[in-house]
Design a protein that fits this description.
It comes from Agromyces tropicus. Its cofactor is FAD. Helices cover about 50% and strands about 15% of the residues. The strands form two sheets. Strands 1, 2, 3, 4, 5, 6 and 7 form a seven-stranded mixed β-sheet that branches. The radius of gyration is 21 Å and the shape is globular. The chain starts with 18 loop residues before the first helix and ends in a 6-residue tail after the last helix.
């Protein structure tokens, strides 16, 4: 399949990809435009997830690329970032599903699991046979998860007993497994567990009334004496440092998703500006509209340069927490500004689903906050700059 560069990639960062990566990206882009874009507005309005996209995503390799066990070909973190961008420029919720499935759930097992656990679970998650969720955030613990985690794990022989609550857990209303992070009552350290959602005492309740990422099925989880065998404890996840290693990997991809969301809104605004006539000519010919679109493109281009470099550093083994934190903080802030300008360019039509901008505008709010708020990420970068921690 021929590869057509995005017009919104103004400085041609896609040229850094290999020929094989471009071919795969073109296939993903074509499928998203053909199969996903036409249906997402309806699913967004109904607050439902299109489960029929899971198998095609798996068949395309989208759930496989990051892991040695399942990658269909050798690929770069820059390529995987562009995959996240492509998903988000069509729909941020489908992108979020992939981020949870591939980055957080599979990533937890890839980073914290034993070789045996990796062999058992990663292929199942990559094929879509098993849908995963990631249970870290709690009703009273979000930004302070490193210290404030309240869910507990107690060892009883060859089993662990989990008690507590989780909140905002994506995919959790229909996942087959959820990675639950809990504090060991014995040593006070955070440990990870692969919890089948059919386990007695596990209950997930959908969070209703969302105005952002409505397609994502977020849930409140209650764990009441949930018994998990030692074989389902992540064998190499023994403290919150291991949890943070998962988040470090996925935080940069959230930044890529933010760029994709900004591009989705910008491209919709450009289409609208070319088609909408006022005062006898397309509004694209008005100076104020061009100013808004150029500001959008400037934010996108600056953010894209940052996330490309962060992914290159990941490939080189040079990425640190502060690098992904700066990318996430900057790209999501720029995205929030960009989707607002795109909505402004569409006037009143920018708040209805027909023109797509309104969906990107609303979904940006969730990306701005999840996987580390802007404020928490600035503190991570601030600590690296000054050598002083200012978290409390």
């Amino acid at each position: 399949m021929s590869f057509e560069p995005l017009a919104s990639d103004f400085y041609s960062y896609e040229s850094l990809l290999t020929a094989r990566e471009k071919e795969a990206l073109a296939e993903i882009r074509s499928w998203l435009e053909r199969e996903v874009r036409p249906i997402v507005n309806g699913y967004w309005e109904r607050a439902e997830f299109p489960v029929e996209v899971v198998k095609p995503l798996a068949d395309l390799g989208v759930l496989s690329y990051a892991w040695d066990e399942t990658a269909p070909f050798e690929n770069s973190a820059v390529f995987r970032g562009f995959v996240a961008l492509e998903l988000a420029r069509v729909d941020a919720s489908v992108c979020t599903f992939v981020g949870v499935q591939n980055g957080l759930a599979t990533g937890s097992i890839a980073i914290g699991g034993s070789d045996e656990q990796r062999r058992e679970w990663i292929p199942k998650l990559a094929s879509g046979e098993v849908v995963g969720a990631f249970g870290l955030t709690e009703p009273l613990s979000g930004s302070d998860s490193a210290r404030g985690l309240r869910t507990t794990a107690r060892r009883e022989g060859d089993e662990w007993v989990l008690n507590g609550q989780k909140r905002w857990i994506g995919n959790a209303t229909w996942s087959d497994i959820t990675i639950i992070w809990a504090k060991d009552e014995d040593d006070g350290q955070v440990k990870g567990f692969i919890v089948p959602t059919s386990t007695p005492g596990y209950e997930a309740t959908k969070i209703e009334g969302k105005v952002s990422l409505r397609i994502v099925q977020n849930a409140d989880i209650t764990l009441t004496d949930v018994r998990v065998p030692e074989s389902l404890r992540l064998q190499n996840a023994t403290s919150f440092r291991d949890t943070a290693a998962v988040l470090r990997q996925t935080r940069a991809e959230v930044a890529w998703s933010a760029v994709g969301t900004a591009i989705g809104a910008y491209e919709a605004a450009v289409r609208y500006a070319k088609e909408r006539d006022q005062f006898g000519k397309p509004i694209a010919s008005h100076q104020l509209i061009q100013d808004l679109l150029v500001k959008c493109l400037g934010n996108i281009t600056a953010s894209l340069g940052m996330v490309v470099r962060v992914s290159q550093m990941l490939d080189a083994g040079e990425q640190r927490d502060e690098h992904s934190a700066l990318a996430k903080a900057f790209a999501t802030s720029a995205m929030r500004e960009t989707v607002a300008w795109a909505r402004e360019a569409c006037g009143g039509n920018g708040i209805v689903l027909d023109y797509e901008v309104g969906r990107f505008f609303a979904d940006a709010e969730a990306l701005y906050s999840y996987e580390g708020t802007r404020e928490m990420n600035t503190l991570i970068v601030g600590r690296a700059i000054t050598g002083q921690a200012a978290f409390v």
